[in-house]
Design brief:
The chain is an alpha+beta fold. The protein has 2 domains: 4-73, Glutaredoxin; 84-246. It has helices at residues 13-24, 63-73, 84-111, 116-132, 137-141, 143-149, 151-156, 166-181, 195-209, 222-231; strands at residues 4-8, 30-33, 52-55, 58-61. It is globular, with a radius of gyration of 18 Å. It binds glutathione.
Length: 252
Amino acid sequence: MVNIKLYGYSTSPYVRKVGCCLYYKKLPFEFVPVNPIDPKEIAFTGQPQVPVLQIGDEWRTDSTPLASWLDELFPEKPLLGSTQQERESILALDSWVSDSLILAGFRSAHEGEINAKFRHIAWRLAAIVSSQTPLPDEIRNAWPDLLKTAPFIKHMMCDVDSTESLSEMQARVSLQLIENLQGGPFFGGRKDPSLVDFAIFPQVVFNYMLGMDQHLGLTREPSLKNWLDNIRPFLPKNPLLVPDYMVVNALP
Ligand SMILES: N[C@@H](CCC(=O)N[C@@H](CS)C(=O)NCC(=O)O)C(=O)O
């Protein structure tokens, strides 16, 4: 079996997405934690973005093209379906995940008021990063402000539709999440999991499992609760690329 390494930080939704794709395909891989402040672990790539996936001697970036690369090399359990039509509808939903679901998460980090809850989440994120790439105390302490000023998050904000408020966006995303399930059992009404499920899953459970949200809001909606039950058998108990001791809430 060829050597597979996934470089990244577990606080990145895109890194977790690729991790879940690898788990689904049952491909053994090494997760190499990257320090987001000083990403020396990926210096060999000459660029700062994670995830980086290395298969044998070749490395590539960008989660969706990475999923496509995995399908080319390991066609069993396809992430992008088996026909051109399936591929197109999976890619359309995957774009929604990036442009709406994930973007809304970054937007709340960027626009959210720096109150006690915001600091709690930010410091917890810093603790998660530090558990794998130790950070100096002053950096951990400054994490709430660093989230506000991170250049890549600022850059992502260029894609936000400023005529829609953050709370309107969050409400829209929650409704579209249910719509896009299309009755399940997997996203897009598919009978098998796809890239879309693995882009969504680690995003919607992360804050709950890592102790940043008290409730897993998702499970209040019966169709999403069913989906969670459908997808879980395809993944390990902790597919979030964090050490087990950082997981404080198991899924119900
Ligand atoms: N389109 C990329 C986005 C990846 C991305 O935005 N990664 C962020 C972490 S969540 C990153 O590496 N930011 C640091 C930087 O760009 O300097 C993907 O799908 O993989």
